[in-house]
């Protein structure tokens, strides 16, 4: 069956959104704090209070000097330390810092969840390995090593981090006002490979969501954004937009996940503009759509009530080089 037919079918299915597995809760989330970074400590405490995460779920580590990238040798004991302190009820991990965000060519979120894969780093532009979480409502059971989805909560600005957390919490009080999912098929053909899988224009009436699939480089002035996905090195006019609580936004490009770099637009810009979660590549992935959030899969799982961290992890087929960032528990469509 052609994938375009599947996309159309999936949009029809969204009108009758069915629940998947029980969504993630605060009791199942571990919060990892870097005691060497004051912002991490402060935001970790703020987040735990805001989300009522049990104190026993907090893990303390020490990562000195705020490195952007760790070696495999540096990361191995850190991963062992984090996973070794988690109870059997934990299903996801939130690391409360901006950097480190990479382990050699891997994102730190994929390296923590799936383990470090030296073969991937030797062949960054080759196809990746299939994620067991991709479009899967029955994720793998904990094993050895445990596979727990993970995300970064950035801490470069205390005020921005607090605002991000507030948006995630506010998403729980989202009452299906008019919202729109925007998908921009841009003039940058190399970065528009996933446009083939954008859901078609339409309305998901049970969720009061309008889908707009556009041939455009710029979205300007929109005030009702729940999802915004595009493909460009840098995305302009973000300051003119309004993102609703729980909004997801990302751009397909080579270095969005280089969070503190300036070669291309950092995925942090989405969070600063008002999105609640995002995704970006930390090393050159080439333009495989499988290494980025697949739009219909992401939309489907988010509308079914998944949290931001669950929907994003389920939407990326080959996530080794991509970092997940934001407030993980945001779930505007959970009922």
UniProtKB/TrEMBL annotation:
InterPro entries: CHP03790. Residues 1-21 form the signal peptide. It comes from the Bacteria. Keywords: Signal. The keyword Signal applies. This is TIGR03790 family protein. The lineage of its organism: Bacteria, Pseudomonadati, Pseudomonadota, Betaproteobacteria, Burkholderiales.
């Amino acid at each position: 069956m052609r994938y375009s037919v599947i996309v159309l079918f999936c949009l029809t299915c969204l009108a009758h959104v069915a629940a998947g597995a029980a969504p993630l809760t605060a009791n199942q989330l571990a919060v990892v704090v870097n005691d060497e970074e004051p912002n991490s400590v402060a935001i970790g405490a703020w987040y735990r209070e805001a989300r009522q995460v049990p104190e026993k779920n907090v893990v303390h580590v020490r990562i000195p000097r705020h490195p952007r990238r760790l070696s495999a040798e540096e990361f191995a004991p850190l991963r062992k330390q984090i996973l070794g302190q988690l109870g059997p009820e934990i299903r996801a991990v939130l690391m409360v810092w901006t950097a480190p965000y990479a382990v050699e060519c891997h994102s730190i979120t994929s390296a923590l969840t799936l383990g470090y894969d030296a073969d991937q780093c030797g062949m960054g532009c080759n196809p990746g390995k299939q994620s067991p979480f991709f479009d899967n409502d029955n994720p793998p059971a904990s094993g050895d090593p445990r596979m727990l989805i993970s995300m970064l909560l950035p801490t470069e600005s205390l005020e921005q981090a607090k605002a991000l957390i507030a948006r995630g919490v506010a998403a729980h009080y989202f009452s299906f006002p008019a919202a729109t999912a925007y998908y921009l098929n841009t003039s940058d053909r190399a970065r528009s490979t996933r446009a083939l899988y954008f859901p078609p224009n339409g309305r998901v009436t049970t969720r009061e969501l309008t889908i707009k699939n556009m041939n455009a480089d710029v979205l300007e002035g929109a005030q009702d954004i729940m999802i915004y996905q595009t493909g460009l090195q840098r995305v302009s006019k973000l300051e003119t937009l309004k993102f609703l609580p729980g909004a997801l936004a990302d751009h397909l490009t080579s270095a969005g996940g280089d969070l503190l770099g300036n070669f291309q637009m950092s995925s942090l810009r989405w969070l600063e503009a008002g999105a609640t979660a995002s995704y970006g590549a930390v090393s050159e992935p080439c333009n495989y759509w499988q290494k980025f959030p697949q739009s219909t899969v992401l939309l489907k799982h988010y509308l079914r009530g998944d949290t931001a961290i669950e929907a994003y992890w389920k939407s990326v087929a080959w996530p080794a080089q991509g970092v997940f960032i934001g407030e993980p528990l945001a779930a505007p469509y959970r009922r």
